[in-house]
Write a structure and sequence with these properties.
Two copies of one chain form a homodimer. With 278 residues, chain A is of the alpha/beta class. Chain A contains nine helices and 13 strands. Chains A, B: Pfam families: LpxI_C (PF06230), LpxI_N (PF17930).
Chain lengths: 278, 278
């Protein structure tokens, strides 16, 4: 396998690149303009999202056989995307797929690379150790209220996921405080931090749980939820008691530093399987 | 019927009070401290949420037979509520109901008034003309994209309502941009206004629809969704093409001014029944 990593925003691509480099599978890196920082990836090439033809040409020249997408990419403004010739050919189908939601768009884009002769490798195939383990991580255990909120937050996150709304939800004392759509997890947690103290917790009395779960209908080869140090920092700031993510279905980055932060600030971190006995 | 209106935040209580006054049913007004502005209600009494005993005593002295709740009231911080004796008696049950979500809490509070011998009258019983009519209001009609988004937004709003998350959702070109939980509609629309232009519309090219629908499991005697001038102003600011609300299941306040604003800014207003043929 000669692998190309196509990197979007965030920390996940850096971890995937490092793991692929270790396995000597890495052939090329494409840093998507406006999302990935070229300085984070020595020897990477930078292309715009609309340059699909140039990307394919480059990957073929490099004799790449497999591609892996990782990191966040905003939904494009198709009226401003400046497509090259090949992208223009695929544009009408892409716009149609995009109108059916995030999942349909991602699945469509993945299919375009397959049409061009590349095999797709998921980030978790490249880097399984980054996946969330099952059980409690760190020193903080859950009380009964936290446990009930964790289960409820998982249920809400999966339910809104089934509607292709998003992957995250915050529940505190049985009340859904916030649900993530296009704004992202950090913005959602900042919003929770502005809710009345009666609804959420505080540093002195931590209440409420963030859940990040895979959308039940999504293609798990792309766009798995991610938690890491920033997630815990935002959760702490919102007064939450902890974070739960899908075991084997979410990435957990910077594990040591994140667990240290959670321990120091009294937050739990919990991995739960997608299917829970009720 | 000798009616008391128990007023929370917002414009709905003012309309309900005006209608009840016209029918000569109005006996007393209670303006809840911290939520209703006492200056909006001549002859009203002001009580804290925790003064349930004093409220009941006052209503009995006034020979009130029926009560009507309207307007928003934040979920109380039970640790700071300073209950009087009767409220203290009911507090454990109220805290338990609150842990089951907004609907359970409201239904419980309504039950407490009934236990004390009052009959409950819904705001729509007092003021049916305020309810959202079916069909398009104003001069702006929907194109095919708007219509698809309106149907989708209604579906998402009802789906999250069934989970007791909230009553509102914004969908644009098939993508769920935002879902309302505890932050409220205005905060949700302000958030949509900060999303990338590629996702939402603009004043020049309006795209996206706000839907406000009744939660399928909720007690419709309390907490019906409300739209009005402010809703349309926030929707316009977010670049949306229009607002859809449940016909007969949402309040539409300040109709004339709101429709004028929508016409002037190119937004549609649409009332749709709860059950749509698909």
């Amino acid at each position: 396998m000669k692998l190309a990593v196509i990197a979007g925003r965030g920390d996940l691509p850096k971890h995937v690149v490092a793991a692929a480099r270790e396995n000597s599978q890495l052939k090329s890196i494409i840093a998507l303009e406006g999302f990935a920082n070229l300085s984070d990836y020595p020897n990477a090439k930078s292309y715009r999202v609309g340059e699909f033809g140039r990307i394919v040409k480059y990957l073929k020249k490099e004799e790449v056989t497999h591609v892996c997408f990782c990191g966040n990419v905003d939904r494009p403004d198709f009226s401003k995307i400046k497509p090259d010739l090949k992208a223009m050919f695929y544009l009408p189908g892409t716009i149609k797929a995009a109108s059916k939601g995030d999942d349909a768009l991602l699945r469509h884009l993945l299919g375009l690379f397959e049409k061009e002769g590349f095999q797709y490798v998921s980030p978790q195939d490249v880097c399984a150790p980054l996946l969330m383990p099952e059980g409690t991580l760190g020193d903080i255990s859950l009380n009964d209220i936290h446990r009930a909120d964790a289960l409820s937050a998982c249920h809400i996150a999966q339910s809104i996921g089934a509607l292709d709304i998003g992957q995250g939800a915050v529940v505190a004392r049985g009340v859904t405080l916030a649900v993530e759509a296009q704004e992202g997890t950090d913005a959602m947690l900042l919003r929770v931090a502005t809710l009345p103290q009666a609804l959420r917790g505080s540093a002195a009395n931590r209440v409420g749980v963030l859940a990040k779960m895979v959308k039940p209908t999504q293609d798990t080869r792309i766009d798995l939820p991610v938690i890491g140090l920033k997630t815990l920092q935002h959760a702490a700031n919102a007064g939450l008691a902890g974070v739960v993510a899908e075991a084997g279905g979410a990435f957990f980055l910077d594990k040591a530093a994140t667990i240290d932060f959670a321990n120091a600030n009294g937050l739990f971190i919990l991995g739960l399987p997608a299917k829970l006995e009720s």
